[in-house]
Amino acid sequence: MGKVIGIDLGTTNSVVAAFTGRRPSVVESFAGERTMPSMVSFLEDGKRAIGHAAMKCQVTNPEHTIYSIKRFMGRRHSEVDREEKLVPYEVVGKPQEFVQVRIGKKLYTPQQVSALILQELKAQAEGFLGEPVDGAVITVPAYFNDAQRQATKDAGEIAGLQVKRIINEPTAAALAYGLDGQESRRIVIFDFGGGTFDLSALEIRGGDFKVIGVHGNTHLGGDDFDQRIIDIVADDYARNHRFDIREHPMALQRLKQAAQHAKVELSQREVANISLPFITVDGNGPKHLDYNLTKERFEAVCSDLFDDTRKACQELIWEAGGLKDVEVVLVGGSTRMPKIQEIACEVFKTDRLNKSLNPDEVVALGAAKLGGVIQGDLHNVNLMDVVSHSMGVETAGGGMSKIVAKNTPIPTSVRRVYSTPSNNQTSVPINVLEGESKEAKENRTLGLFQLKGIRRAPAGVPQIEVEFAIDADGILQVKATDKDTGKSQEIVIQGGSGLERGAKERMRRDTQEQAPKQPERAAGDLRQHAEKVLDDMKDWLEHNGEMMAQRKRIELGTVLTKLQKAVAKNNESAIRTNLKKLDELAKVHKKAG
Ligand code: ADP
Ligand code: MG
Q1: What domains does the chain contain, in order, with CATH numbers?
Q2: Which of the listed residues 7, 8, 9, 13 should we mutate to test ligand 1's pocket, taking the one with most ligand atoms within 8 A of CB?
Q3: Which of 160, 173, 571, 573 places its Cα 20 to 30 Å from the Cα of 263?
C-alpha cells in the first residue's frame, strides 16, 4: 500500500506529516518550511500561488487571496454572517445555499480552495518521501458537523487523495503524545490557533478515548491579538499624521503582517519594534512608521481577550462536571503566548503543561500516526472517536427525537421504530436533524426525504424503522424501512456538503489538470526558496550588517539586488547564479569570521 499521510488542514496554517521509519515526521518543504499558510492567491495570469507564495501576494492582491477558507467549509450563507465580515474576498450564495467565493468571473466552492491547499501539501509530501502518496488522514475540529466533515472529505478527494479517515484534532493531538496507552487518565487539549480556541476534555482508559467535554470559542484566536496591535498602532499614527492606515488596503496588509510579527516577538521579549518604511507619501515626501510596543501594553490592551480565554476554560470545567488533576496539552501557535500558558495553569490548577511536542505540529503528527496504522506500519494503537453532535429525526409535534447522542463512540449504528401520526397515511416525511435542542427548528436539517408506499392503516399502526449509521469519519447514512412492506429508502444526506458526485468529479479533474507540472513546480520552489533567502538575508543585514566590513557589505548588497531582480523577472538561471554567489560569499564570510 502507498503512503498514507496525515494532514492538519488549519484555518491559518496547515501541516503535513508522514509515518516513516518508526515514527511520524513533519514534512519539510523545499524551502525548509514546516508549516504552510492555508492561503491561495489567484493571480492575473490564471495561475495560483499557494501557501507562503500566496501570503506574499496578499499585500498586492487582497481581494483575490483567500485565507480562513476553513470557516466556510460546509456552511450555508445564512450561517456565516460574522465570518464574511472578516475577509476581504467576496462570499456569494442565497441564504440557504452553501457559500462560494468569487474570483473575477469565476466561482469556487470552499472545497475547491481547500483542495488546492491539500494538493500542494500532497506534492510536498511526495517530494519529501520520494514516492507517490495516495491516501490521507485529515483532521477537523471536534465541533465540526456532518456537512463540514463531508466538505473536508470532498476537498481531499478533489485534491486527488483517498481520504482514509477524518479525525478530530484533539484526538490526533492525544495520539501524537501517545496518550493512547493502557493507563487511565484525564487530559485537556488546549488548542489556541489563529482564528479559534478549541478545548476538549478527554478521558483515556485502556486505549479508548471518551470525550467528556468540548468547549471553545470559534471567534477567538491569534488574529484578534494582531487586530489589537493594528488598532493601537494605527490610532497612534492617525493622531500624529492624520492618516488612517486601516483605510488603505495595502498599507493595512503590511501593518497586519508587522503586527503579527511583533506579537510573536513579544512571546520572547519585553519590547517589539514595528517599523514600516514608506507607509505613505504626502506633500513633504515619504512617511515612515516606527513604533515600540511593550509586552505590558500589549497584555493590557488584550485583557478582555485573556478574560474570554479564562471564561471558555471555566465553561469546559463546568460542562465536564469539574476537572481535577488533568494534564493540559498545548496545541496551536497562540499557546506560545506566555500569558496564555499562565492562564492555562491558573484555571486548570496545574503547574504541568504538556508542551514537549511543537504545538504547531502535534495535530499533523497524530494524524500521521494514524496513517501509520492504516498503512500497516504501526500496531497496538487504539483509537476511538465520537459523534460531535446529536442526530435524530423530527417528530410530528415539531420536536427532535434523538437517535444517536453526542459523544457516542463511532462507528455506530442505531435503529428506532416510529409510526404514522394520521390515519391512512401513505408517505411520511423524514427530516434528519443534527443538534442538541429539543425543538426541531432550532437544530440543523441535514436532509429531508419521503418514505412512500406505506400501506393504508390507522394512525400509529405502520412500523417505520429508521436506522442511523455513522461511519468512522463521523459521516451519517440514514435508512428508513416500512417493516410491513419491507420497502426501504436510504439516503446519503442529500447534498450534505453541497456537492453532487458529478460536480465533485469535475472539480477533481480541473484541479488535477491545472496542477503545476513538475518543471513548473521546481521553478516555483526555487523562486520560493530565493524569496526566503532574500527575506532572511535582509533581516540578517539589518541586525548584523554593521559588524561586516563595508566592502563585504556592498558586495553582498549587490548580489542581493541582482537576486531580487531575477526573482521579479522569474529568471530561473539568474536566480540559480545569484544564489550560488550568495552561498560562496557566505562561505568566505564564515571562514573569515
Ligand atoms: P490554526 O490552527 O488556526 O491554523 P495555528 O495553530 O497555526 O492556527 O496558530 C496560528 C496562530 O498562532 C497565529 O495567530 C500566529 O500569529 C500565532 N502564533 C504563532 N507563533 C506564535 C508565538 N510565538 N507567539 C504568539 N503567537 C504565535
Ligand atoms: Mg489548528
Answers
A1: 3-181+358-376 (3.30.420.40), 222-301 (3.90.640.10), 387-501 (2.60.34.10), 518-592 (1.20.1270.10)
A2: 13
A3: 173
